[in-house]
Amino acid sequence: MTIPNMNQQKFIDFLKENGCKVVSDENWDDYNRVMFEKDGVSFPLQMQKTYYYYTVCKICEDIGIIPPEEHKRVLDQIRNRNK
What we know:
This protein is α+β, with helices and mostly antiparallel strands. It has helices spanning 8-17, 28-31, 53-63, 69-81; strands at 5-7, 21-24, 33-38, 41-46, 50-52.
């Protein structure tokens, strides 16, 4: 089984496609974070080279968007196995 993941640019594009927008990148150099906004609520995103399925699903859940199907399917499989 391949572990679902997204590189940094793909994840940023995914967020933008789902209604998020970059509102500030002034903390990029100091803290490696970019501020996004969705529906009037701002949130920081810690920049990483790779975002694995758990992180993608957690961020999506926190901001109220549906994670990519492949990521959600693997997370659900692991949660169901641990019951």
